[in-house]
Amino acid sequence: MEDAALIGEQVRGLLEFLAGVFNADPALQEELKGELGWINLTMGLRTADWSVEKAIVFKDGFVSVLDQIPGDTDCTIVYTRSADIIEMLNATPDESYNMILKGRVRAEGNIIYVGLWNYLMNLVVGAEQQEAVERQIEAHREAKRALAANACAAGRRERPARRITRIRGTREDPGVKYLEDPYLACYGLEDFPRLAQMREERFNAKCEFTSEFGKLLTDFHVANGYEYDRSGAPWDPLLRKAESVRYLLEKREPLIRKNDLLGGTWTTNPVLGGVGRPYSEGCHMWGELNTCARREYEPYAITPESVKLFHKYIFPFWAARNLHELWKSEYGNPLPARIHELFFAIFYWATVSQSENNPGFEKVLQMGTRGLIEKIEAELASDAAAGAEKKNTLEGMKICLQGVNSYARNLAARALAEAEAEADPARKEELLRIYRHLCKVPENPAETLDEAVQSIVVTLLCLGWETMDASISLGRLDQVLQPYFAAEMAKLERPAEREAFIRHAVELIGCLYLLVASRLIIAVDLGNWQNSGSPPNTCVTVGGVTPDGKDAVNDMTYIILKVTELLALNHPNVHARYKPGVNSMAYLTRVAGVNYITGATPAIHNDDAIIDALSCHEGWALEDIRDYASTGCVEPSLPGKHAGTTSALEINLVAPFEMALHNGRHPVADWALGPQTGVIENGAFRTFEEFFAAFQKQCIFMLEQAVAGNNQLGELFHRHHPHLLLSALTDGCIESGKEFLRGGAKYNSSGVSMIGLADVVDSLMVIKKLVFDAQAVTFAALKEAADGNFAGHPVLHAMVNTKVARFGSGDAEALAMARRVMRLVGDFFAGSRDYKGGVYTTGWWSMAHHVSYGRVTGALPSGRLAGEPFTPGLTPHPRASSSLLDNLRDVARLDHKAMDNNIAFNVKIVPGLTDSPEQVVAAMAQYMKTYFELGGMQLQFNVVDSDTLKDAMANPEYYRDLMVRISGYVAYFTGLHHELQLELVRRAEYRL
Amino acid sequence: MNQSPLIVEIKGNSLDDGPGIRSVVFFKGCPLSCAWCHNPECKSPRAEIMFDPSKCVACGACIAVCPRDALAGANPFYIDRARCDLCYACARECPSGALAPVGKKMAVEEILETVITDKPFYDNSGGGVTCSGGEPTMHMAFLGGLLEALKRKGVHTLIETCGLFDPAGFKELVLPFTDAIYMDLKLLDPDRHRAYCGAGNEVILDNLVALHTLSLGGKFAFLPRMPLVPGITATSENIAAAARFLKKHRIGRLQLLPYNPLWGEKMIKLGLPNPYAKDHPLMNWPPREEIDKHKAALTAHGITVP
Question: What does pTM read for this prediction?
């Protein structure tokens, strides 16, 4: 208690110091003057037991300190122990995130104000905070150097050599009409100086956190209101959102990137920028406005004008209107929101985005926005009985489509102006072509390949500005574009003309790739624990079968694969579909070849398995299922027909397992939130089945929270940010007059990813085999050893590590255990309904959550130590088997129906030094083919060895474009969080 | 030799022991005793025990169960192999797998069951099963039975052999079920062969020529291979002699196997003193140019080096 009193005095001293400085310094006073009035804040600081309690009040430019936290406090930071308050002050970013992740610090009230509090504190103690950052960077650099001390640096030479590998192919696919060598082996990046230069710019750029979006949106609502319209009447969100989207699209600056063949950019920074939506992810950046440029991971460029706009104008307007806070305020701080804020069990991605979908770009290409507007008007005219919802939904769609046309017109005007000012005649002609395309599309149907790609780009950008630009995917780009490519090729007679057009197609798709690669999701530093290095994951899907089941591989498939190889970018996230028995070995070998050359992309999917999994959904037509394309990390969705929101929930499966071990209490979060299912120390479980039942109970409890929270967020999103443009492009929404998030689409579902399968299955196996079958150890003794991180129990630790068969070893019982756990989860979700009336689909991929959730998980019966990462996706543990084939066979035998949101199965392979590229690629294709024929759903190869990764950690300058698959998404290795880098080094690697 | 050999290991997913993706069955026992043998655990046909100090957690459980007091930290290799009667009570007790038996009696059926699970991978890659060792032909009847069973299942078969076997028995029992033979050609000088490999090379060379001639009939593939052992086989004299021998018998190909020094670590686990110092050439990876040099010499003689 005396400690607490002492610390209370220290805290008071610090707060009084801050107050004094603010009250005395006019420059700091200036920071409290917002554009819309004084920036006021009442911030509480206390310990969980209230032994320390202080508050600081910023009110109309005057700052004071209180010994009691007043009732109307905006936000209170609660520390588990008094000493944590002091520790947090001196912590490096990673140390403070560790405290947050472990629940030693949490916030009550509006969490956005923690950001404002950090912003204000940083103005005074910024130098000390930056010192802590530098300390952390130096410590990591030191650790990396030590790790790499004995690593072979051959990767520095091998990788560039691999990058320029060119293998010729043969024409075997019936859909390939015009490419003599479908592998296009004659081209290297040097043949496309425009792409080479734009790629170089991308790698030299620091992402800019831009303020245009936030400013325009705030301008709109300051002038027109938010909750109420200008007349003072409550404003139907459908119309409010539509009007705001049109305003944004009309007013945003129409830009054409230097040398680009396509008009339009994501942000005011054409090379690399992020928007930072103030109603979702952007608001959380308040505390980092002045520090994000110098943080360790993914630092952002930000102009002083933008900092000022965000701090004084944008964030104050949205602080209480951002989705995270609205979730808490409108639903009475529900249990799911409290779970979300502690980071240990469920990440509700729906707090940020609902846009992981494949929009129907073909509708715009075929009908134009004009045709869509006509369709909407016809629907309005034909349904006299339409209610307010239908009328406003359709009206809203129309308003958004008008906004799209405005943006295209503004772009066209910009292109013409630039063309007139352009001195270089070749570039002038290109700009005039862009101008002509934009005068026509997307308002009218596209007729050429250039028009089609330009139309897609404008639509994609507008969708991004309407929704949140996460994972709006391009669908089956090869299927969408082949008709335009073929029509133009058919008109060309001379080989030289055809050759020139093929080159042009490569360049055009290259420009599309670079546009996709030109933006990031603005994320707080803490986000680097969860999805470090992740791009927004716009997916491109190629190959597979057509809706009527025929071979879909065509010329554009190979052109897109060529661009993937040449640019070797982590974004777009590229996916290749493969249908055993239909797609050719030439195609599969090409996919393997691109994977080998880029090291990490594309990911490969088995049509048989995915179509089988999706076919279990009642009412989903086979021809639509066959048209699936990837979104987000790996998830299938049906382009233009499906509201899939495929990465709504990212759930830690190990959390309910730990709660079953601790009678409903989560040990690291120190929170007794689950049902009481039995105390192991009291002999609660006499059989394995009794324990499994407890696990099942905790699991269902957690999954219920996931569904409840996601359904709240879906409703909330609809009420504040309905997706009307997306609705206009989705089958069913116009006819039903229902918005995308209201179940208007032809097909509806929400997607889940489960994290930690292998760790749970291996732990269950240890409990079953050692505790109950062999009775080699009591359950209580095993739990005690795990609770103590196996310290003092080397024998037991050795036993659990070596004596029990794991998932991925080929052991029938371990495989059956995996299937049982997956069925438990899959059955629950198949029986649940989302806010759109759709099913929940179950996936087994992990983003980087296998590292962040691992951090907040204690030691497990499987032998995994406290804080260590789980295995990524559903990849077996490296110790499961020394033979890759055991892994492949086990994963191939899982039940498709329990993984209808796909899996991420990572395999790290290392080519032998003496193998030729042809040999390596052939072997990769043979593994893929066999695994798929055995029933495997998805596979992703990282072609890199641990020594190269270690060398890259210590010498990043040689490896700035080294790509790795994390779990679903692809990242540039050198920019990854330190712990994620270590996890990649530790993954099992198999010599090819 | 007895009819049921010991199997040391069945290694799945091998890409280095023949075409495609393969499983390799390692037989225990070899008629040669090459100074550089990289599978020392496969030399003796008898059962053995291995101790891996890097896995040991020093719990002492093995010492407590050993009926012959053969285990002690003070022993040079932990196990006093003079006392040990291979009851394996210690290996059963060991929690970490540091103590483990070497060699397991396996029936043909059991081997078949293990390797057949990977058949889809063999089929798509042109792979199959490789019998290696040790020397698989030391157990001619058993080997023949295994190969026949594999062939009946449609699995491609390959044997890796040192070449020292009875040709009549081989032709009768093994050859009919073998799709490919990889045979070592180590040292051409019979005295050096005797000195480094523990036996003369006369039978080996005869067998090599005879099998090459038979292979021309197209029923099986045949590939002679030379392990490039620094200072022993990888000498200009030996390479030149090999080239002359091959040319004389119109054998156009010789594969060169790069030397791998890691066998030294296995010796310790077997309780065998390593005869070479750390800086000895046999304990180190040879330079890459070494292979290129010998390859060039063979090519100059008109021998193809795949």
Answer: 0.96
A991 CB neighbours in chain B (<8 A) are 15
Q: Which residue of chain B comes nearest to A921, CA vs CA?
A: B125
CA distances from B214 to A507, B175, B176, B207 (A): 57, 10, 12, 10
- Shortest CA distance from A884: residue in chain B: B13
With CA atoms as reference, report the closest residue to A615 among A603, A628, A633: A628
**Measured distance CA(A107)–CA(A105) in Å, rounded:** 7
Quickly state the pLDDT bin for B3 (edges 50, 70, 90): low
Considering chain B, what percentage of its residues have pLDDT values greater than 70?
A: 99
Q: Using the beta-carbon criterion (under 8 Å), do A934 and B12 form an inter-chain contact? A: no
In this complex, do B57 and A886 lie within 8 Å of one another by their Cβ atoms? Answer: no
Query: What is the pLDDT, as a whole number, of residue A492?
Result: 97
Name residue A827's amino acid. D
Give whole-number Cα distances, B303 to B257, B299, B300, in Å.
Answer: 15, 5, 7
Contacts of A889 in chain B (CB under 8 A): 117-118
Residue B68: count other Cβ atoms within 10 Å of its Cβ: 12
Sign of the torsion angle spanned by Cα atoms A688, A692, A693, A698: positive
Question: Cβ separation of B95 and A796 shorter than 8 Å?
Answer: yes
**If we measure between CA atoms, which residue out of A132, A96, A314 comes closest to residue A209?**
A314
Interchain proximity B11–A883, CB inside 8 Å: yes
Q: Residues A154-182: pLDDT tens digits?
A: 999 989 999 999 999 999 999 999 999 99
pLDDT, one tens digit per residue, over B156-172 is: 999 999 999 999 999 99
Residue ranges for chain A with pLDDT beneath 70? 1-2
Say yes or no to pLDDT of B2 above 50: no
- pLDDT of the residue at B1: 43
- What residues does B255 pair with on adjacent strands? B225
All residues at 6 or more sequence positions from B260 whose CB lies less than 8 Å from its CB, including other chains: B38, B285
Q: What is the ipTM of this complex?
A: 0.93
Integer Cα distance of A716 and A710 in angstroms: 10
B12 touches A at CB < 8 Å: yes
Angle at which helices A155-163 and A585-598 pack, to 10 degrees? 140
Pick from A157, A158, A606, A795 the residue to mutate for testing the B interface (most B CBs within 10 Å): A795
DSSP secondary structure, A334-370, as one string: -HHHHHHHH-SSEEEGGGT----B---HHHHHHHHHH
Backbone angles phi, psi at A860, to 5 degrees: -115, 155
Structure tokens at B38: 């990289």
Lowest-confidence region among A744-758, A767-781, B190-204, B255-269: B255-269
Beta strands of A67-139 (E only): which ranges?
75-79, 105-109
Of A799, A930, A933, the CB nearest to B95: A799
Quick check: helix, strand or coil at residue A908?
strand
DSSP-derived secondary structure for A933-977:
HTT--EEEEEE--HHHHHHHHH-GGG-TT-EEE-SSSEEEGGGS-
Give the list of residues 6+ apart from residue A484 with CB closer than 8 angstroms, or none.
Answer: A446, A447, A448, A449, A451, A452
By the 8 A CB rule, do A594 and A602 touch? yes
**What is the secondary structure of A538-605 as a DSSP string?**
-EEEEESB-TTSSB---HHHHHHHHHHHHH--S-SEEEEEE-TTTS-HHHHHHHHHHHHHHSS--EEE
pLDDT for the residue numbered A895: 96
pLDDT digits (tens, 9 = 90+) for B125-140: 999 999 999 999 999 9
- Per-residue pLDDT reduced to its tens digit, A201-257: 999 999 999 999 999 999 999 999 999 999 999 999 999 999 999 999 999 999 999
Rounded to an integer, what distance in angstroms lies between the CA atom of residue A200 and that of residue A202?
A: 5
Q: Are A885 and B12 within 8 A, CB to CB?
A: yes
Inspect the interface and report whether the beta carbons of A926 and B21 lie closer than 8 Å: yes
Cα separation, B127 vs B104, whole angstroms: 25
